[in-house]
Design a protein that fits this description.
single chain; Rossmann fold; 4 domains; six-stranded mixed beta sheet; about 40% helix
């Protein structure tokens, strides 16, 4: 398999399929059992580092410069020579050689280029000389990302680069990578991000690694179409071919004009339809069936405010929930949304204000933190029985089966589950509720792409109300029809979709005022 410049490869696969292992083998951090990895002559490889404490005693700007190992080595040796008190003729010759190498690597512009990357990622200039240890966890993530991008490496390996990034920084990164001229390989669970930057998808499934042209949505929709065709044996081969060709033409016509999408479009147009394979993925069957429709009075919130550790998270929050409202809550401080959901569930008390749920409302809540619910060593079937009126095994097995726990897996102990397994149990618990209002605090955390896609599809069709926060742009854009942004200085409430909201120039100034 060959990865070529000008292309971005999205690596996908179920949790545990080996995506991160594959990247580690490419970076040399792990040896392969057989086969080999080679770079082009003189090419540089850069990797997004995951150890956030690795550079604690290094200034922020220096940590970014260290991303270009050869340049950093030259800079360090050069500085050491010039700081010598007994500068010899030999030192002079060596310094001259280093100066040439430094200039060849565009060293004179290195600090300003590193500073520009940091500023683009939202690290203010006054923080560039701070030690890494003095930054927050989220700021450290941004610095390590700047380090990976610094010096425009020939090959860039990014493992979950959007984790812990706010939506504005994710958009900046999408734009940066869309115009990146070299080779990028990225593992991500963010479909909007993969769609924006990828020219190809690398699918790791059943111990096989396969390469497909197009972005994530093209891979997903084409593999689903091929699967439906395979299941429909009555369709003639000629009709199947026509349907696939029409799908390819339709997808190409919708491409935007960025460099990545132009090259992706050309590849899709050249695609041999035999290359489109039916999906072998298993998707959970997430089905929410409200016991009853919400009445006219759903939720009324009046003048709510909340502080945490002396910081005002939001104030003056007032709104009425209408039928069919699917609301995303936004804030620069993610604690604001979590606090709001905990208040609305009755788990926390607001500093001021009131809220009132309607008589017909039955809520299901997916909180941000739920590890405390998985402390005991009871089986999954017994765990789910705690939340159900019908505790028969056949009834509960149906819900666990829908969330891909089959056979003996239902007897797994609750306290040994992975993050992805826990959230699938939480969704099974929500399905049992037959609720007509969903409260979802960052619902895609720990889920693989298959579960995110299934969750997304069912929430689009959900017949009740949704109140959620999320850092998954596609989730927000496809589900929500109302945006409420909350901050210390009030709120903005708009009936519009997310893309229009964040790109509206008039709203940008209003949004700043929420936090100033």
């Amino acid at each position: 398999m060959k990865f070529t410049p000008g292309n971005c490869y999205g690596i996908i696969g179920a949790n545990g399929a080996g995506k991160s292992t594959f990247l580690k083998m490419l970076s040399g951090d792990m040896e392969s059992t057989n086969g080999n990895v080679s770079l082009g002559s003189g090419e540089r490889l850069s990797v997004l580092r995951q150890n956030h404490s690795e550079y604690n005693d290094i200034p922020v700007l220096s940590a970014v410069l260290m991303g270009h190992e050869q340049l950093w080595k030259v800079m360090s040796e050069k500085d050491a020579i010039y700081s010598k008190t007994d500068f010899t003729e030999e030192d002079g010759h060596r310094a001259s050689t280093l100066e040439e190498q430094f200039a060849d690597m565009d060293g004179w512009n290195a600090e300003s280029a590193a500073g520009n990357l940091l500023s683009g990622l939202g690290i203010k200039e006054e923080s560039h000389q701070k030690l890494m240890r003095d930054l927050s966890a989220k700021e450290k993530v941004k610095v390590l990302l700047a380090q990976a991008l610094f010096g425009k490496p020939d090959n860039l390996l990014l493992d979950e680069p959007t984790n812990d990034l706010d939506l504005e920084t994710v958009n900046w990164l999408e734009n940066y990578l869309s115009y990146f001229d070299n080779t990028v390989l990225v593992v991500s669970h963010d479909r909007h991000f993969l769609d924006a930057i990828c020219t190809h998808i690398v699918d790791i499934d059943f111990n096989k690694v396969q390469l497909f042209p197009g972005n994530y949505t093209f891979w997903y929709e084409s593999s689903q179409l091929a699967l439906r065709q395979m299941q429909n044996q009555n369709k003639k081969a000629e009709d199947r071919k026509k349907e696939l060709l029409e799908f390819i033409a339709r997808f190409s016509a919708n491409a935007s004009k960025s460099k990545q999408t132009t090259s992706r479009k050309k590849m899709i147009e050249k695609l041999n339809i035999e290359e489109i394979k039916p999906s072998t993925r298993k998707y959970p069957a997430i089905i929410f069936t409200p016991e009853r429709e919400p009445g006219n009075h759903i939720l009324e919130v009046t003048n709510l405010s909340k502080s945490m550790n002396g910081t005002l998270l939001f104030s003056g929050l007032s709104f009425m929930l209408q039928k069919d409202d699917k609301v995303v809550f936004l804030s620069k401080d993610t604690r604001a949304m979590t606090a709001l959901f905990e208040i609305l569930k009755g788990h926390e008390t607001p500093d001021s204000g009131t809220f009132n749920w309607g008589q017909t409302i039955l809520k299901a809540h997916l909180p941000l933190e739920y590890d405390h619910l998985f402390q005991s060593d009871i089986t999954l079937i017994d765990w789910l029985a705690q939340f159900s009126q019908d505790t028969t095994e056949i009834y509960l097995r149906g819900f666990l089966g829908k969330m891909l726990f089959s056979g003996e897996e239902i007897y797994k102990k609750a306290n040994v589950l992975s993050g992805g397994e826990k959230v699938r149990c939480m969704i099974a618990r929500m399905m049992i509720r037959n609720a007509n209002v969903m409260l979802l605090d960052t619902p895609t955390n720990h889920l693989d792409l298959e579960s995110i896609q299934a969750f997304n599809n069912t929430l689009i069709k959900f017949k009740g109300n949704i109140l959620m926060s999320s850092h998954d742009q596609q989730f927000i854009q496809t589900i929500c029809n109302r945006i409420i942004e909350i901050g210390p200085n009030g709120m903005i409430d708009k009936l519009m979709d997310y893309d229009d909201y964040i790109n509206d120039e008039r709203l940008k100034e209003q949004r700043k005022q929420l936090y100033s």
